[in-house]
Amino acid sequence: MRIKYLVLLASITLCFAATTSWAQDPYFIRGDVTGDGVVDDADSTMMYAYVFQTIPPNCVLAADVDDDGVAGLNDFLYLYSYLYLSGDEPPAPFPDCGTDPTDPQPGDDCCTPPTPQGAVPSITPVGALVLVLLLVGSGIWVYRRQRLATTSH
Ligand SMILES: [Ca+2]
Ligand SMILES: [Ca+2]
To answer: How much is the mean pLDDT over the chain?
Structure first.
């Protein structure tokens, strides 16, 4: 009887774990090194401190403003040009919160993406496989229980 509940608890836990994406690319806004959701003067100041004084920004991923894979002086100049000299916008994800579409780097989320209206939770392929296996396993377990019950009478 106890094992049945343990198996049920393990199955539910496995379902939750399997339907969660483990390797989600981090969310950020390119250039928003302060992590406050907008790219403005404060980001320029923080980029300056990062490049010239090696003070780490709040969002390291956002510091690669030109999306070449490294953060440095070019990124500060790119951000400065965008903010004060009508230069090009930073590449995506910009100006909205998102993931890097070209070369995602590992890191922590710096922003929360807006949930599209009407969106339903999605299931990962691993989650779908686990659910199918649980369904088949449950069917087999019920079949065997019924077969045992009918043969014991
Ligand atoms: Ca900012
Ligand atoms: Ca860069």
So the answer is: 86
Q: How far is the CA of 35 from the centre of ligand 1 (A)?
A: 5
Identify whether 118 is part of a domain. Answer: no
Query: 3-state class of 98 per DSSP?
Result: strand
Closest listed ligand to the CA of 65: 2
Torsion of CA 15, 101, 107, 10, to 10 degrees: 0
Residues of the chain above pLDDT 70, percent: 85
Q: Distance between CA atoms of 149 and 62, rounded to whole angstroms?
A: 63
Provide the domain limits for residue 9: 4-21+123-151
Question: What's the domain count of the chain?
Answer: 2
Distance from residue 34's CA to the centre of ligand 1 (Å): 4
Residue pair 59/80 in contact by the 8 Å Cβ criterion: no
Ligand in closest contact with the CA of 72: 2
Ligand nearest to the CA of 77: 2
Residue 33 lies in a domain: yes
Indicate which ligand has the atom closest to the C-alpha of 59: 1
pLDDT-derived band at 77, boundaries 50, 70, 90: very high
What angle, rounded to 10 degrees, do the helices at 73-84 and 41-53 form? 160
